[in-house]
Amino acid sequence: LPAIFEPARPVLQKIEDAGYEAYFVGGCVRDTILHDEIHDIDIATSAYPSEIKTIFNHTVDTGIEHGTVMILDHGTGYETTTFRTESGYQDYRRPDKVTFVRSLSEDLQRRDFTINALALREDGEVIDLFNGLEDLQKHLIKAVGNPNERFHEDALRMMRAVRFASKLDFVIDTATLKGIKENAPLLEKIAVERIRVELEKLLLGQNPVAGLKDFIATGLYYYCPGLENAQDALSALLILNQWHLENEAQLWSVLSLQLQLDQKEIGKFLKKWKTANDLIAQVKKVVPAVQAIRQRALTPSLMFNTGETALHDANQVAKLYGWAINDEELQKAYQKLPIKNAKELAIDGRVLITKAGVKPGPLMGKILQQLTLAVVNGEIANNATTLLKKVEEITKEG
Ligand code: ATP
Ligand code: MG
Fold this sequence. Notes:
By secondary structure, the chain is an alpha+beta fold. The chain is built from 20 helices and eleven strands. A seven-stranded mixed β-sheet has the order 3-4-5-2-1-8-9. The protein has a two-stranded antiparallel ribbon with strand order 6-7. Strands 10-11 form a two-stranded parallel sheet.
C-alpha cells in the first residue's frame, strides 16, 4: 500500500478488532491502482456512527446523519462512513435519507461507476464486485448496474462521468454513454453549484477535450446555464491542444471568451452559475487582458488595472489559443510599472484636502485617477511635489 495509507491502517485495524468491517473505498482506491496522486482517504465501515464513537475517544460529527464521522488520530482526521444504501430518490437528486446497512456489497452497489466501487482492505486485498479492476485497466467509465436507473436516481452522475473522462483520460462505456444521452434533460433537476463543481473539474482535468467532447455529444451542455446555444462555441475548443488551465478564473475566462461575452454578460453568465463575486471580478479582468495579449496591445494602464494575478491568468488562457507572450517578458513589463496599485501614489485624498484645497467628492476621485494614470504611464514622477503641481494644473483647467 502507498505510504499515505500507512497512518490510517491502525484505525481500520481498531475497527476490525472491535468486530466490524472497515475498508478504504472510492477515489483513493482507484487512484492507488492507477498510481495517481491520492488527495483524500475515505473509509467505509459496517460499524454505525454510534459504534465508531464508542471505539474511538476522539471523533467529530462531520456528517453523522449520512453516517460520516471523523476519527481523530495523532492529529490527523479520517472520514469514516457507515455502509449505506440510498433509497427513495426524489426529483432525480441524491436522496438525503440514507439507510445504514451491515454489508459492504450493498454499499458498493450504490456507487456511481465500477472504477469507483472498489474497496481495499487494510491488508492490501482489493474487493472488486463489479469488475472495476478490469475497467480500470481498459480505461473505462462504466455505470454500476443499469445506467438508465442509475442516472434516474441521481442525474449528477452524468456530469461525473464526463468529468472523470477528462480527469482520468478514460473513455465512457457505450451503454453508459447512451444512458447519458437519453437522460441528459434530467440534469436540469440538479443544483447548479453541484454541476459547476463537475464542469470545473472537467476543464481542469487531464484531457479536457475528451470530457468536452462527451459533454457536447451527449447534449449535457444544453441543460447547463448559459450554454444552451453554445454547441459551436464549445466545439471550437476541441481543436485546441495546449491545455494548461490552472484555476477557476482561467477556465471561466475561456468559456466567456468562447461565448464572446462582454463585461456585463460575463457577470450575468457567472451569476447563473452562482460563482463567488471575487471570481466574477477576476474573470472580468482576465478576459480583456487576454484580448490585449492577443493583439499585443498590453499598455501600462491595462496592466495596472488588470493586476499581477489576472495578468498571469490571462497569459495562461492565451497559451491555450497560441496567443501567449513569454511569461518572463510579461513579468518584466509588469514589474516596470512605476506603481502597482493606487495606494502607492505619493499623495492621497487627505493631502489633496490639506495641501491643494480640494474638497472631498467626485472631483477628488477624478483627480486621483488622473494622477494615477499619469504616474502609471510614466508621464510624471511619483513624488508629492510633482503630483501637487499636476493637481494645480488640473484644477485650473477644470
Ligand atoms: P475525486 O478524486 O475527484 O475526489 P472521488 O471518486 O473520490 O474522486 P468523490 O466525489 O470524492 O469522488 O466521491 C467519493 C466516492 O463516493 C466515489 O468514488 C463514489 O464511489 C461515491 N460517489 C460520489 N458521488 C456519487 C454519486 N453522485 N453517486 C454515486 N456514488 C457517488
Ligand atoms: Mg474524493
